Amino acid sequence: MTYDLIVTNGVVIPMNGGTIIRNGAVGISGNSITAVGPVDSIDAASATRVIDAKGRVIMPGFCNSHTHIASNVLLRGLLEDVRLFEWLDTMWKLKQNFDHETLYWASLCGDLEMLKSGITSFNEHFDAYDVEPQIEALREIPLRATLGYGFADRGLYAPRTEYSHRTMANFASIVGEHHRTNGDLLHIALSPHAVYSCGAEMWKEVRRLADDLGVIVHTHLSEGMQEVDYCLENYGLRPVQWLHSLGFLGPDVTAAHCSQLDDDDIAIMADTGTKIAHCPVCNAKLGSGTMPLRKVLAARVSVGLATDGPASHNASDLFQEMKFAGLIHKAAVDDVEFLTIEQLLELATCQGALAMHRPETGRLEVGARADLIVVNLDTAHSQPVYDERAALVYSTRADDVTHSIVDGRLLMDEREVLGVDEDRIRAKFHEAAHDLKNRSLR
Question: Which of 31, 242, 306, 356 could form a disulfide with 237 if both were Cys (CB 3.0 to 4.6 A apart)?
Answer without folding.
Answer: 242
